[in-house]
């Protein structure tokens, strides 16, 4: 039986573990924390990634949970965001939410509330699935034999991953596995800071408002409430010691009523602040028998909301590549050929979207172009 050691029990690691276990591999997952991460309350799963969840059998477990008892989303830090119309941190008490919801339409607004563009997903069963991050992690974990995940087990220079036929680096943007096996890998700072959370007010829909250098977005939180996120240039975001609500009320003063309604409902201490970074392209996601998945391979800015979904797809494609190849080495090469190009294009596209939506100059020309194209844009599921 082939063996795999997976470093990291986040979305990428658990999705890979599920796919390899289903393919008959002996899988061990090493997680440095004492339990599954409670960071994040919701992810936006695009149709292609939802199909990966269907293939893994995870979508069925999520849908069963959605039809049964609601999932209580932890108060804490948030998941992902700008452009993705997805996540946040609950603000004041647990927020009860079913395990999934769906949206298929969204709008881009100006700070005064004028609609620049309306977009929709088209195609059979096309929708963005809104899934609480903790519900997704638990559904992935439920597909693994007990004891597969070994908590409180850090991997680093003094404690390398134990030998296996394949070692999978699924340990995020600051990956220790990548640092060891890909010493020339680099991560770039976007010069942006994201704030996010969940406001205890009903959602008015999936919207983003673009100003000069500033972005504010909202989306429905399944079961009630509004996911919100804001993206600011570093120099306007202040330090971590600065009260985030003071910063947000100052920077978004005068914006339309929908923005003010959400910010007025946000409670102190519920705001997650995160400096945004992204990966420089690698020549390969494979080094000997080590392979990278998720943010360890292709950390992307959240402006397209694709990071979590691409991590899910990585795990499924890696297992399919290994299962269909005559050797492990060939399977890893097939995975690299299949995933490196598409994911690096999304990394570049997310960086481009960040430059457009957080543009500080010539916003009038940007808005005119968005308005002109708005009625022509349809996203295919």
List keywords for this structure.
6-stranded mixed beta sheet, 12 helices, 24% strand, disordered C terminus, alpha/beta
Short précis:
With 381 residues, this protein is an alpha/beta fold.
Structure commentary:
There is one protein chain. The longest helix is centred in the last third of the chain and has 30 residues, at 328-357. With 381 residues, the protein is of the alpha/beta class. It has a single domain (3-365), classed as 3-Layer(bba) Sandwich (FAD/NAD(P)-binding domain), CATH 3.50.50. The model is unreliable at 68-99 and 376-381 (pLDDT under 50). The protein has an 8-stranded mixed β-sheet. It has a 6-stranded mixed β-sheet with strand order 10-2-1-11-18-17. Helices cover 34% and strands 24% of the residues.
Topology:
Elements lengths: L2 E5 L3 H12 L3 E5 L12 E3 L1 H10 L1 H10 L3 E3 L21 E3 L3 E3 L1 E5 L5 E8 L5 E4 L1 H9 L7 E2 L15 E4 L6 H6 L5 E13 L7 E4 L4 E6 L5 E8 H4 L6 H8 L5 H9 L6 E8 L6 E2 L2 E3 L2 H4 L8 H17 L4 H30 L5 H12 L4 E2 L1
Parallel strand pairs: 1-2, 1-11, 2-10, 7-13, 8-19, 11-18
Antiparallel strand pairs: 3-9, 4-5, 6-9, 7-8, 12-15, 12-16, 13-14, 14-15, 17-18
Helix pairs in contact: 1-4, 1-10, 2-10, 3-4, 10-11
